[in-house]
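Morning run. Coffee first, then this:
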Amino acid sequence: MTIAVGANKAGRREVLGMAIGPSEAETFWTDFLRKLARRGVKLVVSDAHEGLKAAIAKVLNATWQRCRVHFMRNVLAHAGKQGRRVVSAFIGTAFAQENAPAAHAQWRQVADQLRPRAYKLADLMDEAEMDVLAYMDFPQTLRAKLHSTNPIERLNGEIKRRTEVVGIFPNEAAITRLICAILLEQNDEWAVQRSRYMTLETIATMGDDPLTSLPPVAAA
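And here it is:
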């Protein structure tokens, strides 16, 4: 199951799409993203799916942001139990920088410092630098909401909880109906929330199109 959620031109979160299929396949992602292309996507936030990355390059004129949270889990697996806290703090200094050039410079410095004792970890940092720090090229007021798939995790959790209550579904259509009902409920809730997810002013800073949507895409 794949769900796309974004911020619409009014600054409110919105469910953009849902599909059930082989989420590792580029053909699946290509078809899914074509349905989102008309929304003016500027940034896609997701886990490191190779098929999705290839489809983004083919279908969307958009930047890909690798989920920072999931990357940290992957990279800390190479740090050992005793070193995880220190490594996390070191890498976090790159995220704390005020602009993209400073973040990239700090990232490379941290990788070089770690390389003698943890070369695999440093190699992962080298490979992921551009993708994990992609959000730094966006306005500072938006960055906290662009670097991970966390905004969609609560929704994924609710879908998992509701489907586990049912247990066994007779066919794919049955589970699709339930998931769509959950998504409609969530969409309605977001539409009437008093506070906007993003202010109109921050959306306007995106550049040439103030009606830009910014969907984090996550596979569950």
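Residues 172-192 form the longest helix (21 residues). Good start to the day.
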